[in-house]
Specification:
It is globular, with a radius of gyration of 19 Å. It is of the alpha/beta class. It has helices spanning about 10-20, 35-45, 55-65, 90-105, 125-140, 150-155, 185-195, 215-225, 235-245, 250-265, 270-275, 285-290, and strands at about 1-5, 25-30, 50, 70, 110-115, 140-150, 170, 205, 230-235. The chain has twelve helices and nine strands. Strand 4, helix 4 and strand 5 form a beta-alpha-beta unit.
């Protein structure tokens, strides 16, 4: 039995779909407050629903009984953050540390953890990810750590300033560095493919897309696909550094840290990883076409 933690999220829902398509038994950890439509969608896939909360150790102990593999995609960021009830400290760090310990106690055989590659700046979300990775490696539970870089569906969307419907785009830094944008659907495919595979156990995989592309070249791709011109605003690295230093809220500080990472990101070489995970990855061009034309942009 495979347990997916974060199953109502973007990556978690797709991971469930992939696991079911692979013929694997799946149960999803959902809270009583989870979106009923998303819970219904999971049930429609054939997923078994189990009530619990990542931040409630007692519920985790019950849910992990009989589980062979835990696949985790849950995070307080970017959409579920609450400074009291669902924070980086309570969810992304403390809850995961407890889940790892419970996985060991309940004899879970394998643990798939979704993280991101190390970035140069220190900020709360990065610190939480590194602490969880360290605990998982020391736990004695077989693990796969997936470190996907910037999701194109988030970082190339209006949510963070890439506002192609209004023909505007905000980029961070000079925009000349190549970024290995990845689709969340491909992250889910890597997560599902990490189950029941000895070659993928006790290993860490930085993940990117098929080709690293600079933000300014991404703008050109969107302009070509949409037949339009985007008004580009660049946020200087110095402004991001100031934002990181001045932010008091952990989420705002983490966003600043992620934007700084974007501004200095280096390409991820996927050649060796794709030997182990023989997957065809979604391109930025495919993403741009999928969002521009249905939206009538251009």
């Amino acid at each position: 039995m495979n347990l997916v933690v974060g199953a109502t999220g973007m990556v978690g829902m797709e991971t469930c779909r992939r696991l079911v398509a692979d013929g694997k038994a799946v149960k999803a950890l959902v809270r009583t407050t989870s979106d009923p439509a998303k819970v219904a969608a999971l049930k429609a896939l054939g997923v078994t629903i189990v009530l619990g909360d990542l931040r409630d150790p007692a519920s985790l102990t019950n849910v992990c009984q009989g589980v062979t593999t835990v696949v985790t995609t849950a995070s307080s960021m970017p959409f579920a953050y609450d400074p009291v009830a669902n924070s980086i400290e309570t969810t992304d760090r403390d809850a995961y540390l407890k889940l790892i310990a419970i996985a060991g106690d309940t004899r879970v055989q394998h643990f798939v953890y979704t993280s991101f590659p190390p970035l140069s700046a220190s900020f709360p979300l990065q610190d939480a990810k590194r602490a969880v990775e360290q605990a998982l490696r020391a736990s004695g539970v077989s693990y796969t750590i997936l470190q996907p870089t910037y999701f194109m569906e988030i970082w190339l969307s209006p949510a963070v300033g890439f506002d192609y419907p209004n023909r505007k785009a905000t980029i961070y830094g000079a925009g000349e560095n190549a970024i290995s944008w990845i689709s969340f659907t491909d992250v889910a495919r890597f997560a599902a493919a990490s189950v029941d595979s000895p070659r993928r156990q006790n290993a860490t995989f930085p993940l990117g897309g098929p080709r690293a592309i600079s933000p300014r070249d991404v703008v050109r791709i969107f302009e070509r696909v949409g037949g339009l011109t985007l008004d580009v605003t660049s946020v200087p690295i110095e402004a991001l550094q100031t934002q990181l230093a001045d932010a008091a809220d952990p989420m705002q500080k983490s966003y600043a840290g992620l934007m700084l990472g974007y501004a200095s990101h280096e390409a991820i070489d996927m050649a060796a990883t794709l030997q182990i995970f023989p997957l065809a990855l979604r391109t930025v061009e495919e993403y741009a076409t999928s969002v521009m034309r249905p939206a009538g942009v251009g």
